[in-house]
Design brief:
3 helices; single chain; alpha+beta; globular
Length: 109
């Protein structure tokens, strides 16, 4: 996922989270906010309950790969993906399917 497609600043995260337009499943929570600019952006948040820094960075790499395969960055919205502790109980394939179902639920197709 390229840098221009990422939400990096904490105030941008807060703006999207304060919109309170979210959808959830056991492994992920997705917050969505419409955007005026020409492409979509995605931010990923992994809490400390999921493990130490090595484990959290591995999870972020995996979620970035899922986002690259599932998301279309031509649409105009910002998305925050929050990873829940149930992420560890499923394998990569099941987590990817769960994120795909959640994306369809949000109607970001």
């Amino acid at each position: 996922m390229k840098k221009i497609y990422r939400v990096c600043k904490s105030y941008e995260f807060n703006e999207i989270l304060n919109e309170k337009n979210f959808y959830a499943n056991p492994s992920f929570v997705i917050y969505v906010k419409p955007r005026a600019l020409e492409h979509a952006r995605v931010g990923i948040s992994v809490g400390k309950k999921l493990g130490n820094a090595v484990v959290r960075n591995k999870i972020k790499r995996q979620v970035r790969m899922m986002v690259d395969e599932l998301f279309d960055f031509t649409e105009k919205y910002d998305t925050i993906i929050i990873v829940r502790p149930k992420y560890h109980q499923e394998n990569y394939g099941n987590n990817k399917k769960g994120l795909e179902r959640l994306k369809k639920k949000v109607k970001i197709v």
